[in-house]
UniProtKB/TrEMBL annotation:
<feature type="transmembrane region" description="Helical">
    <location>
        <begin position="290"/>
        <end position="310"/>
    </location>
</feature>
<feature type="transmembrane region" description="Helical">
    <location>
        <begin position="539"/>
        <end position="563"/>
    </location>
</feature>
<feature type="transmembrane region" description="Helical">
    <location>
        <begin position="204"/>
        <end position="227"/>
    </location>
</feature>
<keyword id="KW-0812">Transmembrane</keyword>
<protein>
    <recommendedName>
        <fullName>Lipase family protein</fullName>
    </recommendedName>
</protein>
<feature type="transmembrane region" description="Helical">
    <location>
        <begin position="266"/>
        <end position="284"/>
    </location>
</feature>
<feature type="transmembrane region" description="Helical">
    <location>
        <begin position="396"/>
        <end position="421"/>
    </location>
</feature>
<feature type="transmembrane region" description="Helical">
    <location>
        <begin position="593"/>
        <end position="612"/>
    </location>
</feature>
<feature type="region of interest" description="Disordered">
    <location>
        <begin position="55"/>
        <end position="80"/>
    </location>
</feature>
<feature type="transmembrane region" description="Helical">
    <location>
        <begin position="330"/>
        <end position="349"/>
    </location>
</feature>
<keyword id="KW-0472">Membrane</keyword>
<feature type="transmembrane region" description="Helical">
    <location>
        <begin position="148"/>
        <end position="170"/>
    </location>
</feature>
<keyword id="KW-1133">Transmembrane helix</keyword>
<feature type="transmembrane region" description="Helical">
    <location>
        <begin position="467"/>
        <end position="488"/>
    </location>
</feature>
<feature type="transmembrane region" description="Helical">
    <location>
        <begin position="361"/>
        <end position="384"/>
    </location>
</feature>
Length: 846
């Protein structure tokens, strides 16, 4: 194993970046030609400065000290490494939604396409997060029921994806785009002309390949990612700590279990059986209804069996391992057989006459019923309140919020795909034409007669797809307006951060006339503005809650509307009076407008997730990053869990360093320095390292942690308390930010102060809990201008959290830093020196 590590430094400083994939040279704050590769591959790799870069940086540092006396009074050279420290950068951004520039143009294009494909399964990953947000006991019937509930919901999400592509392939193209043995959708390529000579049943059978192919494409991508990411079993060799209350300290937490493969089989079986059911509905709408009913019954039996098996498949690390069973394989085989029978009957029966209108109504019944089932599953989670709801996200309703988020995003993506595709195939007609308008019964009739002409297909979608986009947009606009009114309120966080300045951990006083003092005075207004802006970003939890509530309301309203519109004669009579006709026209125009808006939103989302770093989709990107941190125990076809690869790699690198020979009689030590989401990787890696057989006898006490700009306490600690809550990382429980408050965290600060006073009055020790992060020492930097960075212990002064400088004076032009460049601050250098045991320089004046 090539390491290229210097043998003369006793301390390893291992830097870990956040999800935006800062390139290794930027993470080391050096030019690209001053870093070199140590080990790894395109997904995860370790880098360190070249020998020439180290010599140059240390020479500049010595020159500065000689000319100014004290290096901390003026910024040290960027990228310089103190004596006694070997600095490395761990690059893991290739595992998430961004791509490293070093992969080249071709690699960047391939990665961008891959990220676009992962966007389609974003709802799966978000729903997967719900299974980890329950109150997670070690065992019991209740948690098995709750986790099974999430697995069933995830199967429903897969079914909705199948229905989306089946609507396009089986209804729009196979049926509506052909009439009188002619291709009426001239937007399709000429290759589709040949299908006009086929019977409608044969076309439906052939195009049923599309939803199944989409399902298997997602399966193939997910399986490839699982094989590339699942390395924990080869790296983490610890023994399962059955008595350890911390889930992160369980080696199997990062190891993909065989049950995940069984759960994958159930998703495949459900998707294939749903395609067979739709083919059966087409048969039932034909001159052979008996065959169709038989296929529908068989497909339904297979789907129910798959759902029951998914419910019973234990995938959580604390659930029991089940013996191997042939049921998943048999169910998947049965799904293929039912689909083969359905497509065979559609293809082989001569003169099969299919009623396209009846088939479409049946399709809509299945779609709306499936959405209704998803809504009911979300509602069911509300009947399992969690303890200590005040310190859990959304008052203990995190499972419902994550499920709602996945459902709404999934439905929105499905509707966008269907409406955009239908609008493209429909020629120059507006998008609202897909919904029917006043003459719904006529509009739903299939184009099967000689009256159909090329270029005038008159396509129609079911009631749900076109209307959902308009209803969802209306509800979201109302929610956003309410939120915007609250966000424009004045924000002032100075009273809270003043307490940190008065503490011993504050930035040392700056002499008047010093470079930093001049810059602070010059940039005071920008500092104030960035603090207020960051305070608004900190309101992610209440904002997402409001948007999810609006999304669920839109879903329920559309379901009710869609069920009503299934009786076309009733709707036609209802819309006959003039006032209703006028409302119908206005609604149609709103649909056209909503399609434009959602098209722009879809492009922004895909573009942001593909290319990364886009402020337009930062909130959704944050949701993506949070969701993909967790193993796929709920939905096996979601985006890859990057920590399944990153955590074992970091743990292995630390153990390698700690096993190196002593340097001048001094033991090797390591300092893990991590930014943003890298802090989650760092903490998880320390727990993984604690399972190593040599931890208690050798490693313990030789690893320290330096984090900056992290989200552990207010996000992870509230979303998944049993994984990264206060009992795991140590610290005070966190209350939710208040949308209307001038300082979102003022109530949390007051609550912590009250708890501390009560503990002091009762003479209760303020020691960390037994599950605290296994680090010899931990220092965490934060600043009020950081829109994604928070204290790790509490919003009150403490020994761990240090307020970092907001003004960067290390460059030619001073700047106010927000979420980046913590390593350039004097606070970082002081913290690093303290953890490394280096002599502390006393601040002074130049």
């Amino acid at each position: 194993m090539a390491t290229n590590a210097s043998g003369g430094e006793p301390v390893l400083e291992l830097r870990i970046h956040g999800v935006n994939n800062m390139p290794p040279h930027e993470l080391l704050d050096l030019p690209p030609d001053e870093v070199e590769f140590a080990m790894g591959d395109k997904l995860g790799s370790f880098w360190h400065p070249t020998a020439e870069s180290l010599d140059k940086g240390r020479a500049q540092q010595e020159l500065g000290e000689g000319s100014r006396g004290v290096v901390d009074a003026v910024e040290s050279p960027r990228g310089s490494v103190p004596e006694g420290i070997h600095r490395e950068a761990y690059s893991w951004g290739g595992m998430v939604r961004t791509v490293s520039p070093e992969t080249g143009v071709g690699g960047a294009i391939v990665a961008a396409i891959g990220r676009a494909c992962w966007t389609a399964v974003l709802p799966f990953s978000i729903a997967n997060a719900a299974i980890w947000s329950w109150n997670l006991p070690r065992s019991g019937t209740r948690i098995r029921f709750q986790s099974g509930l999430i697995r069933v919901f995830c199967v429903v999400l897969t079914t909705l994806l199948i229905l989306s592509f089946a609507s396009i392939a089986l209804d729009l193209i196979a049926v509506q785009c052909y009439g009188g043995r002619r291709l009426t959708c001239t937007a399709l390529p000429e290759a589709f002309e040949g299908f006009a000579r086929w019977s409608t049943g044969r076309r439906i059978a052939f195009f049923s390949i599309v939803p199944v192919a989409v399902l298997f494409a997602i399966f193939a991508t997910s399986t490839l990612a699982r094989l590339r990411y699942n390395v924990a079993g080869r790296i983490i060799k610890g023994t399962p700590a059955t008595e350890e209350p911390v889930l992160l300290a369980q080696p199997q937490f990062w190891q993909s279990r065989t049950e995940i493969s069984r759960l994958t089989s159930m998703h495949l079986a459900t998707g294939i059986a749903m395609t067979a059911l739709l083919c059966g509905l087409a048969l039932a709408s034909s001159s052979r209804p008996g065959w169709g009913v038989g296929v529908c019954i068989a497909a339904t039996v297979v789907m129910v069996t798959a759902v029951v098996l998914a419910y019973r498949t234990d995938t959580m690390p604390f659930e029991r391992l089940e013996e191997r069973t042939p049921l998943p394989t048999l169910t998947l085989t049965a799904a293929f057989l039912v689909l083969a029978v359905a497509t065979g009957a559609l293809s082989l029966f001569p003169g099969l006459d299919i009623n396209g209108y009846a088939m479409r109504i049946a399709f809509n019944w299945v779609l709306v019923s499936t959405v209704l089932l998803a809504v009911l599953l979300v509602t069911a989670t509300l009947f399992f309140p969690a303890p200590d709801r005040i310190h859990r996200a959304w008052g203990g309703m995190a499972p419902a919020v994550f499920m709602t988020m996945g459902l709404v995003i999934g439905l929105a993506l499905s509707c966008i795909v269907n409406v955009v595709m239908g609008d493209w195939l429909n020629g120059d007609k507006p998008a609202s034409a897909l919904g029917g308008g006043r003459k719904l019964a006529t509009a739903y009739a299939s184009c099967t007669g000689t009256g159909c002409v090329p270029g005038d297909p008159s396509l129609r979608l079911g009631a749900f797809y076109p209307w959902y986009l308009g209803v969802l947009l209306a509800f979201l606009i109302v929610a956003l307006l309410i939120v915007a009114i609250q966000l424009i309120r004045r924000r002032d966080v100075l009273p809270r951060i003043d307490a940190f300045w008065d503490d011993a951990s504050k930035e040392p006083p700056v002499a008047d006339g010093s470079p930093r003092g001049d810059l602070r005075a010059l940039l005071a207004r920008e500092v104030s503005r960035k603090r207020a802006s960051a305070a608004r970003y900190h309101l992610v939890e209440p904002i997402l809650g409001a948007l999810c509530l609006a999304g669920m309301a839109a879903t329920v309203v559309t379901v009710i509307t869609a069920f009503s519109s299934l009786d076309q004669r009733f709707v036609t009579q209802l819309l006959a009076p003039e006032p209703f006709a006028t409302a119908s026209v206005l609604a149609a125009r709103w649909m056209d407008f909503s399609l434009i808006v959602w098209g722009a939103v879809g492009l922004a989302v895909v573009g942001g997730l593909v290319f990364g770093g886009s402020k337009v989709v930062r909130p959704l990107g944050l949701v993506w990053d949070l969701a993909c941190f967790l193993p796929r125990a709920g939905h096996p076809l979601g985006a890859p869990c990057y920590t399944e690869r990153a955590v074992p790699e970091v743990a292995r690198r630390l153990s390698w360093w700690l096993d190196l020979p002593r340097v001048k009689g001094q033991e090797r030590t390591a300092i893990v320095t991590a930014h943003s989401m890298g802090g989650v990787v760092a903490v998880s890696s320390l727990f993984a390292l604690a399972t190593h057989p040599k931890w208690l006898s050798d490693y313990q006490g030789r690893v320290s942690l330096l984090t900056f700009g992290i989200q552990l306490r207010p996000y992870f600690g509230r979303f998944w308390p049993e994984i990264l809550g206060p009992e795991v990382i140590g610290g005070e429980p966190c209350r939710a930010p208040r949308l209307r408050a001038r300082d979102p965290w003022a109530a949390d600060r007051e609550h912590v102060i009250a708890e501390q006073k009560a503990a002091a009055a009762a003479n209760v020790s303020d020691r960390p809990s037994p599950g605290v992060v296994p680090a010899a020492d931990w220092i965490s930097l934060w600043r009020a201008t950081d829109f994604l960075g928070f204290p790790s212990w509490s919003t009150t002064p403490n020994d761990r959290d240090v307020y970092a400088e907001e003004v960067d004076a290390s460059g030619y032009v001073g700047a106010v830093d927000a979420h980046s460049w913590y390593p350039r601050t004097p606070s970082y250098r002081r913290a690093l020196g303290r953890l490394a045991g280096l002599p502390e320089r006393q601040p002074g004046r130049p």
